[in-house]
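Hi there,

I know you've been waiting on this one. I reran it after we fixed the sequence typo, so this is the corrected version. Both the input and the resulting structure follow.
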Amino acid sequence: MCGIAGIYKLDNSTVNKNALGAMTDVIEHRGPDGFGYWFNNKETLGLGHRRLSIIDLTLAGKQPMTYMGLVITFNGEIYNYIEIKKGLENKGYKFFTETDTEVLLALYHLKGRECLKDLDGMFSFAIWDEKKEELFCARDRFGEKPFYYYHDASQFIFGSEIKQIFEAGVNKEVKEEMLHNYCVTERLNSNDLKETFYKNVYQLPHSNFVVIKSNGTLHFEKYWDINYSEQNKDISLNDAINTFNELLYTSVKRRMRSDVPIGTSLSGGLDSTTIAAYICRNNQTTNLNTFTASFLGFEKDETKFVKILKSKYSNINDHYVSPTDMDLIQDLQNLFFHQDEPIGSTSIYAQYRVMQLAKQNQVTVLLDGQGADEYLSGYNQFWPVRLREMYASGDSSYLKEKQNVKELIGFEQNIGLNLSLMIKHPNLHKRISAIKNLVSKEKNSNTKNPLSPTYFQLKGEKETDNVNWSSLNSVLYHSIFSEGLQNLLRYADRNSMAHSREVRLPFLSHKLVEFVFSLPSKYKMDNGWSKYILRKSQENFLPEEICWRKEKVGYATPQSYWMQNKKIQEIQQDNRSQLATLKIFDKDFLDTADSWKILNLAHLLS
C-alpha cells in the first residue's frame, strides 16, 4: 500500500520537480517507509512514489520501479502475484525482487492492457512505456484504490489523493453542482463516476484504464463489468454454498500474504466475524489481533458480539478503542484533511480511530468485512426490491415471504395500484410519471435553492441512473458501482492510510462477486433473512447469536449526543458565520442545516 504521483507535460515542456516533490510529500502518511522519483530523458514525465512496505521489505522493492523498458508507480496489492509469477517464469521471465510490483510489470510487458484481466487485487498504477512513449493508468475493478487526475492541453497530473492535484498548482474550486446536490440530498457522488467536489479534478472510474499518448490524446476504456441479468437458476443451495465457501476462503488466504503483521477490524457483525473466524480456524497456533470501536452504554454498541466470538475462538487477541465527543473535536480537522471531500457521518471517525489503534499495536495490514452488504443484500432497504421482484414474476411464495419479512424485521411492503402499475407496466408508468413531474415542477418552480442564485443557478436535474427498482440484481449492481460502496471504499482508504495501515477486503474478490450475481435472488434473501447464503455457509463456524442476527449496525456512533457537545456547537456556529460571509448559501439553509453538514461544508470551502 502506497501513494503515487505523476506529471506528464504534453506540450514538451519540462516537469517542475518542486511540484512533483510537493505532491509526493503531502501524502507521506500513505508511505512512511520510503520515497522515490523518476524522470524520462526529456524530463517531460515525472513519477513519484511513497512506500508502505508490505511485500519484500528490502530496498529492492523501492519505486518507481523499472523493468524491460517499463517504469511503474503503483499503489495496492496483487494478491495472486505468486501464481502469476510462476506462469511468467515458465515463459522465460526473470525476477530480481520478491515484489508483486515486478510481477505486474512483467505481466504488462507480456500482455499489455490485457494484463488487467489476470489480476486479483486492489490497485491504481501508472506504467510508462518508453518505446511507445505512452502512459498507461489503471484502477481496480471496485475502486478500492484511488486515482485522481487533472488534464488540459499542456499536462496530465495524477495522484492518490485530491490534495496532491492542488499541490501541483491547480486552482482549488468547488464544483457548484456537487455542492448543490450535497446540500439538498446529502449525496456524496454523481451519476458521472469521474466527478469530484472540485472543478477540473476527476477520478478514474473503477474498472477503467486510460492511455495518455505523447500527442496529448487520452483514451478511456472499461475493462471489466458484471452481466447481472444472467442467473443460474438450476444450481442447488448446497452446491452454491460449497462454491461460495471455496471462493471466499481462497480470497482470504490470498489476502493474508504479507511480510508484516496482519490483524482484522472487527465490528461484531456477520461479515467481519466471518473473516476473523476463518483466520482463527486456520491459524490456531497464532493469536489474531482484532480491533473494535466500543461504545459501552450506547444502544448500538457491538462489544458483546466480539466477546461472544472470542468465547468460541480463544486465539483472538481483542483490542478496543472508545472514541468520545472530545476526541472528535481534537481530531476533526485531521479527519477532514485526510478525506478531502464531505463524509456521511461520524461513523467514519470510529473507523479512523480503529486504524489508529492498529497502528499503536504495530499491526500494519487489516482484513475487513466491507463490501459484503452491497451485493449479498445486507441492508433492509433491499427487501422492498426483493418483494417487488417476487410480485412481478408471479412467485407463488410472495405472500409467505412478505409475512416472513414483517415478522422478522417489522417491515411491510404493500403493493398498491401505483406500485403495481410500475412493476407490471413500466413504460406506461414512466409516461404517467413524466406528466406528473412536469406538473410538479411547474407548481414548485419557486422552491428555494439552498445556494444563493448569484452563486449558482440550478440548470435542471440530470438523468438518474438506469436502475430497475424491481430487480434485486439491478439494485445491488447500482449499490456496488454507483452509490454506497464507492463512498465506503473512499472512507476506508483514507482512514487506513491516514495511519499508514493497509485494509484488505476479501469479500471484494471479483470471482466471488461474479458468482453471487449469478445466483438466484432467493439465495441472497430468503425466509425473511438477508445475506442468506453467507449465513448458511457460516452457521457451523459462527456463534448463532452472530450468524443469525437480525439487526445491522456497522460503525454506529452516538452522533446525536456528540453534536450536543458545547464546544462542537460553538465550532459549528462559528462555521455558520464563516459560511455566511461567502455569500454562497441562502440564509434559511444556513440557519436550519444540521451541525454535521455545516462542519463538512466549512472544511470543503475553507
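Quick highlight: The chain has three domains: 2-222, 237-377+481-560, 563-604.

Best,
R. S.
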